Amino acid sequence: MRRWIRGSRGLQTLEWVAIGLVALALPAALAFGLRRAEAGPGEALSAAVSAWFRCLIGQGDCPLTAVGLEKAGPCWTQPVGCLARWGDCLLQGACEGADPKDLLGLLPWLAVVGIPAGGVVFALLPPWVRRRRWAWPRLPLPPSRVPRGRIPSGSSPTPSSSGRVSPPVSRKPASQSYAPFPKETPPPDPGSGPHGIRPPTLEDYVIYNLFDHIGEVYLFLYRRFPHANAHLNHYLGNSGKDYYVSPEEMLHDMPDFKQKATYSFYEFLNEIHKEINQNYKGEPIEFEMNSGWYDHYAPRETDWYYAVGGFSFAYTAYVRVEPPPPGEDRPQVHIRYYLHVWDRYNWDLGKAIDLPIHPGIQPVIERALQRAPNYQDKIYIYDGRLIIEDRALQELHRAGIAQEFNIRGTSGPYELRFSYTPNQPPSVSDPFSKPPTRRIP
Predict the structure, then answer these.
(1) How far apart, in Å, are the Cα atoms of 125 and each of 2, 26, 62, 130, 151?
(2) 374 and 203 Cβ atoms separated by less than 8 Å
(3) Where are the domains of the chain?
(4) Side-chain half-sphere CA neighbours of 296 within 13 A
(5) First vs last Cα of the chain: how many Å apart?
């Protein structure tokens, strides 16, 4: 119990309980304002709380006059019926007999029941859910884009047999301030163009809310795709800031990516060995290497497929070669290397994504499209699948309520030490094994 209280969930729960206790001051102020003027806040709070709990446990008839809440009577004695009545008023226009003063009676229920219950539910959520950023605006409309990345194309060089696209392997003297992420990134696709070139319309906000709902309900809760949901949420957040991912997590989640990254590392290690063969003359040397960018596409119907789709990855390394130490006959090589991933989260004309439609979300999509007729040719259901054309999400970027961004990540560093043998590169079974620092004889 003590460990739980000291943990993040326990502290969060205690914070919400404290907020709930503080919120009891609100009904005290309400009772004090509605009671006779000579009653103090302590007396008003005591009478109000006693009456509430007698009503909750069924030992009282909720006497409003005892606490001076007769002005807020209907919502105080029948909160469920009050909410239903005001729901009919807001959604159907049936507001006959509705008095805004009645809503005062909901404040005690919110303080006594709503805040503590919300705190407990929030504390039980996983930590990575509690840390999520919630985008604005969030409209009160009923409820899906599944973002994906783009494989660099167009002006990039012809890929090699292992998939390298750009730039070529480079070598330069080692710097004292080594920045591992490559300065040049693959050229992105055209995307949606300038951001915020037109004012948003009501239809844009309807579709915005639809995609927000699809991310939360469909991607996160139903499909269990946290990364796809997080990337879509960042797009709807409209900040345009770089979003950082974990290459180690991508290697773990995509075995095919790990296999390709391993083969690419072998090629990169051979390039490093060639540089040592050409430049080591018996004196210590150090230099940096850049593998160039390789491309990869995430497997279909997976979390990373909808989160990035096609993406690029590269290696950079710091290499140092020293003469043989006493008692050794071979130079010693130390390599510190990093794996980088990069992608542009954007949308292109002529492209689309499709999702297996879920029966529970289909009515929500249909209602949203009824309110946004200009999007009906961009978002539709065909053969049991939800088709979302890229130009639907382009409009949110152009309207200035969502924004494309860069996805990037750097691993490691990993370190490799071995004895140098000319024309014989070292053998590495798994370049991403833990711990990252390894010694090869």
Answers:
(1) 19, 28, 35, 7, 35
(2) yes
(3) 2-130, 164-440
(4) 27
(5) 49
Burial of 87 (0-12, 13-18, 19+ CB in 10 A): exposed
Q: What CA–CA distance (Å, rounded) separates 108 from 112?
A: 6
Q: Taking each helix axis from N to C terminus, what angle separates 25-34 and 41-56, rounded to the nearest 10 degrees?
A: 110
Task: Convert the pLDDT of each residue in 304-325 to its tens digit.
Answer: 999 998 999 999 999 999 998 8
Place of tokens 């957040």: 237
Structure tokens belonging to residue 266 = 């072998």
User: Residue with structure tokens 């060639």?
Assistant: 274
135, 238 Cβ separation under 8 angstroms: yes
Separation of alpha carbons 327 and 186, rounded Å: 47
Cis peptide upstream of residue 284 (ω within 30 degrees of 0): no
Taking all residues of the chain, what is their mean pLDDT, rounded to a whole number? 75
Helix, strand or coil, per DSSP, at residue 8 = helix
What tens digit of pLDDT does each residue of 62-81 get? Answer: 544 444 444 456 666 677 77
Enumerate the β-bridge partners of residue 354. Answer: 387
Residues with Cβ within 8 Å of 253's Cβ and at least 6 positions away in sequence, in order, are 302, 303, 304
**Distance from C-alpha of 194 to C-alpha of 212, rounded to nearest angstrom:** 22
The residues near 276 (Cβ < 8 Å, ≥ 6 apart) are: 285, 319, 321, 333, 420
Q: Is 219 exposed, middle or buried (0-12, 13-18, 19+ CB in 10 A)?
A: buried
CA distances from 263 to 45, 161, 163, 260 (A): 71, 11, 10, 5
Angstrom distance (rounded) from CA 296 to CA 254? 11
Helices (H), 2-137: 2-6, 8-23, 25-34, 41-56, 64-67, 73-77, 79-92, 106-109, 115-124, 127-130
Model pTM above 0.85 = no
Rounded to 10 degrees, the C-alpha dihedral 58/61/66/67 comes to 60
DSSP letter assigned to residue 104: G
Crossing angle of helices 202-213 and 390-398, rounded to 10°: 120
For residue 250, what are its two tokens?
């991508």
- Strongest mean pLDDT among 172-186, 294-308, 356-370: 294-308
Joined together, the tokens standing for residue 319 give 């290499």
Residue with tokens 């907020």: 19
Strand intervals (E) in 257-323: 285-290, 293-297, 310-322
Retrieve residue 45's tokens: 């709070």
